[in-house]
């Protein structure tokens, strides 16, 4: 058996098209342009790449994109002042503070200073609590993208056994909440889990989000299971030439694809869905802020 490849790149393109249609309607019918502000502190190269990509895709779907690039030694009060200004700006519907922040800044304090209604990352404790209690919230982008792909492939997830490997606040925990919300039986596994192989073998759905290259081998996968690989790990690839690298996920793709029913590739799986969901969350936040109906199919 060979798994169906879930094409996240193509799916993300359809999400962006839906977002663009909504943006266009908001402009035409209501004279509203959704606005997303991204705050970047310091010059982490990976963060700079993400932020540039977010800005480009935001304008491509017709939204307003604002970037605040702050010096690496920006003080906490100065950063909080920028967030306060964005919280009070009626043209800004989504605020994202790029993580990780420089060490001298308190990440929890900073994230929790964002207006929860504008927290398009879904990291504010209010949104975490709302998601955990099944109330309307902003949902973290990467788990939302995974959920969209799972729903698209399976239809209903009700009654399925799901194993999430990884317990981060950004992916593992919210992913588990979303799967529970769709009536899966959910296990969260992590570095201290006993008999991880046996736990994973029970799963109809495996979401791998640990940040360890190719750690899930194919013989852990139940035949026909759906494998969602959140990992993005860069490995040296001398066979491609000197200094070359390649991206791999948290699952060993070839051996898992030989057993799974469906699998997301790396790159081209979960990755492209994350920014698409950020755009979707911004439109959702804009609609809520203006008392308008939310876009269908773009929320949890
Ligand atoms: N850094 C890496 N991923 C993310 C993300 O999803 N949101 C934010 N704010 N920072 C990140």
Automatic annotation (TrEMBL):
Documented EC number(s): 1.5.1.5, 3.5.4.9
Binding-site residues, NADP(+): 166-168, 232
PROSITE patterns xref list: THF_DHG_CYH_1, THF_DHG_CYH_2
Protein's UniProt keywords contain Hydrolase: yes
Top-level taxonomic group: Bacteria
Domain named Tetrahydrofolate dehydrogenase/cyclohydrolase NAD(P)-binding: residues: 140-288
Pathway: One-carbon metabolism; tetrahydrofolate interconversion
Keywords: Amino-acid biosynthesis, Histidine biosynthesis, Hydrolase, Methionine biosynthesis, Multifunctional enzyme, NADP, One-carbon metabolism, Oxidoreductase, Purine biosynthesis
Alphabetized Pfam families for the sequence: THF_DHG_CYH (PF00763), THF_DHG_CYH_C (PF02882)
Catalytic activity of the protein: (6R)-5,10-methylene-5,6,7,8-tetrahydrofolate + NADP(+) = (6R)-5,10-methenyltetrahydrofolate + NADPH; (6R)-5,10-methenyltetrahydrofolate + H2O = (6R)-10-formyltetrahydrofolate + H(+)
Gene3D superfamilies: Leucine Dehydrogenase, chain A, domain 1, NAD(P)-binding Rossmann-like Domain
This protein's record includes keyword Amino-acid biosynthesis: yes
NCBIfam families, sorted: PRK10792.1, PRK14186.1, PRK14188.1
Quaternary data: Homodimer.
Biological role: Catalyzes the oxidation of 5,10-methylenetetrahydrofolate to 5,10-methenyltetrahydrofolate and then the hydrolysis of 5,10-methenyltetrahydrofolate to 10-formyltetrahydrofolate.
Family statement: Belongs to the tetrahydrofolate dehydrogenase/cyclohydrolase family.
Protein name, per record: Bifunctional protein FolD
Organism listed in the record: Roseobacter fucihabitans
Name of encoding gene: folD
């Amino acid at each position: 058996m060979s798994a169906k490849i879930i094409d996240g790149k193509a799916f993300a393109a359809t999400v962006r098209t839906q977002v663009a249609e909504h943006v266009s309607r908001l402009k035409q019918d209501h004279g509203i342009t959704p606005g997303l502000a991204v705050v970047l502190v310091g010059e982490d190269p990976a963060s700079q790449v993400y932020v540039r990509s977010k800005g480009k895709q935001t304008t491509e779907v017709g939204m307003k994109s604002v970037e605040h690039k702050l010096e690496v030694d920006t003080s906490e009060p100065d950063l909080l002042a920028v967030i306060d200004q964005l919280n009070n700006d009626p043209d800004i519907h989504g605020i994202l503070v790029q993580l990780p922040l420089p060490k001298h800044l308190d990440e929890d304090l900073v994230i929790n200073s964002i207006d929860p209604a504008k927290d398009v990352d879904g990291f504010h404790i209010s949104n975490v609590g709302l998601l955990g209690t099944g109330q309307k919230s902003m949902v973290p982008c990467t788990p939302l993208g995974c959920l969209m792909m799972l729903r698209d492939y399976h239809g209903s997830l009700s009654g399925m056994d799901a194993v999430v490997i990884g317990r981060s606040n950004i992916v593992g925990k919210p992913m588990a909440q979303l799967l529970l919300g769709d009536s899966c039986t959910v296990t969260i596994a992590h570095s201290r889990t006993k008999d991880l192989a046996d736990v994973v073998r029970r799963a109809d759905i495996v979401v791998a989000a640990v940040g360890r290259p190719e750690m899930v081998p194919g013989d852990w996968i139940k035949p026909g299971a759906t494998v969602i690989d959140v990992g993005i790990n860069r490995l040296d690839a001398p066979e491609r030439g000197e200094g070359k690298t390649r991206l791999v996920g948290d699952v060993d793709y070839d051996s898992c694809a030989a057993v799974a029913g469906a699998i997301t590739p790396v790159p081209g799986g979960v990755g492209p869905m994350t920014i698409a969901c950020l755009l979707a969350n911004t439109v959702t936040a804009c609609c809520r802020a203006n008392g308008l109906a939310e876009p269908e199919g773009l929320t949890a």
